[in-house]
Specification:
The chain has 8 helices and 10 strands. By secondary structure, it is α+β, with helices and mostly antiparallel strands. The chain folds into 2 domains: 170 residues, endopeptidase fold (from Nostoc punctiforme); 65 residues, no CATH class.
């Protein structure tokens, strides 16, 4: 019976019936004659979202948009759960290993916990995608065997992620992992990682509230970030400085927070 099962699985693979499939260790027999084993360099995992993204996006130079990638391509995975993947599974497993090394994978179905680098089994259990970016209304993915080719940058609506067409996810982040808090960006009041006009507006609103004796919606950490001139309080001048800094950056005009505000404790590195 055991040998018969292996024969049936091998025959199905040879017939191209198992499309974009992962395989358990017990299911792995000799690969199809035309199969190409892919490899990924071992990595020492840095689990920050930016490091995971960079490890995966680096494959875009080796596998640019439109590179043929079919069920003739396979990859032996280090993540556990499955031992090998063909087609889209192989491509997903290869990028996963590049980002996470030998960390073990686990399945999940709570997609509110989705992270960069997670794999999603979609299309009613027929296709794997790799999560590159996560936004409020959509995710951006890359995938192999998308029409027989590598595809980068497809957008999938969150409504589809949370629909019944998504069978499960695979993550290799340890249980309970929390990404270390990033140092705040000077002048970035809303904390989105960049200085923009919105930050100046928030600083101006805060300054108005404080001068009127009203409470402010900004946290103590946000007020400290908005106080770019180092006066000890958020004022209209801070809002003006933030807006000028944003305008200079947008116009490619070099400046520094220190030279702009006169604050000796402000960053002295250029905005460009």
């Amino acid at each position: 019976m055991k040998h018969l099962m292996k024969f049936r699985i091998a025959s199905a693979l040879l017939a191209g019936m198992l499309l974009c499939q992962p395989a358990f260790a017990a299911e792995i027999t000799a690969a199809p004659a035309a199969a190409v084993q892919e490899t990924a360099a071992a990595a020492t995992p840095d689990l920050s979202a930016s490091a995971v993204y960079n490890a995966m996006i680096a494959f875009k130079s080796t596998y640019p948009e439109g590179t043929p990638y079919t069920n003739d391509n396979y990859y032996d995975w280090n993540g556990g759960v499955f031992s090998r993947g063909y087609g889209c599974a192989g491509f997903a497993f290869m990028l996963s290993d590049a980002a996470f090394g030998t960390l073990p994978a686990r399945k999940f179905t709570d997609y509110s916990t989705l992270r960069v680098g997670d794999l999603l089994r979609t299309n009613n259990d027929a296709h794997f995608v790799v999560v590159l970016e996560i936004h409020e209304s959509n995710i951006i993915v890359t995938e192999g065997n998308y029409g027989g080719k590598v595809h980068w940058g497809r957008s999938i609506p969150m409504s589809e992620v949370f629909s019944s067409s998504t069978t499960y996810g695979l993550t290799r982040y340890p249980v309970g992992y929390q990404e270390p808090a990033k140092d705040p960006v000077f002048g970035d009041v809303n904390g989105n990682g960049t200085v923009e006009a919105t930050d100046a507006m928030l600083a101006l609103q805060c300054a108005g509230d404080l001068s009127s004796g009203l409470g402010t919606a900004l946290t103590a950490a946000q007020r400290a970030t908005a106080d770019v001139d180092g006066s000890g309080s958020v004022t209209q001048k801070d809002a003006q400085y933030i807006l000028i800094y944003f305008g200079n950056t947008n116009a490619k005009i070099a400046c520094t927070w220190r030279s702009l505000t006169g604050n000796p404790n402000a960053p002295a590195n250029s905005n460009l």
